[in-house]
Amino acid sequence: MAQTFRVGLGTDLHRLVEPGPLILGNIAIPFEKHALGHSDADALIHAMIDAILGASGGGDIGQLFPDTDEANRGRDSGEMLSIVWGRVRAQGWALGNVDCVVHLQRPKLAPYIPRMVERLSELMAVPPETISIKAKTGEGIGLVGREEAVAAECVVLLVRETDSSCQ
Ligand SMILES: [Zn+2]
After folding, report:
1. For the CA atoms of 3, 159, 110, 17, what is the dihedral angle to 10 degrees?
2. How far is the CA of 35 from the centre of ligand 1 (A)?
3. CATH number of this structure's domain 2-166
4. What is the pTM assigned to this prediction?
5. What is the pLDDT of residues 31-65, one digit of tens each?
């Protein structure tokens, strides 16, 4: 059995507007602003979905969940992640690991990261140790630093067992 590996990269950015809370990693973080978007605007999950789709050759999140579709208005991004991951699993891919960076000036995300990891591992039915989330501020400058936006970047490694005798 040979192993096939694929990496994928996803990024996302959403404008921050009042009021809170802020949805990130499918949990509600107490804050006076929320991320503006057609769905629940979960930048972390959107970046993860694009990374997974990039690795599996499945297009991008905008093709699967267009913002012109009323069904996606206010939609739970955790549900979108479950749908996408279910399809990619059905194509024979398993998760190697996912590593993400969230860019947010405030609030400090460190206290929330364990719950975000736990929630994402539940949604994907993967061990929590395969998911890494790191947080960075915007150092007070730029869109993130001025608290105008939240951004996220993720890389995903997918692994597939292939039977070389069939190739
Ligand atoms: Zn998004």
Report:
1. 150
2. 9
3. 3.30.1330.50
4. 0.94
5. 999 999 999 999 999 999 999 999 999 888 888 88
Nearest-10 crossing angle of helices 43-56, 77-90:
20
Q: How far is the CA of 123 from the centre of ligand 1 (A)?
A: 18
Question: Is pLDDT larger for residue 111 or for residue 64?
Answer: 111
Cβ–Cβ under 8 Å, residues 88 and 56: yes
Q: Which residues pair with 13 in a beta bridge?
A: 151
Whole-number Å distance, alpha carbon 42 to ligand 1 midpoint, is: 6
What are the residues whose beta carbon lies below 5 Å from ligand 1 (ion)? 12, 46
- For 149, the token pair is 């936006």
DSSP secondary structure letters along 52-82: HHHHHT---HHHHS-TT-GGGTT--HHHHHH
- Specify the pLDDT at position 167: 47
Q: Where are the domains of the chain?
A: 2-166
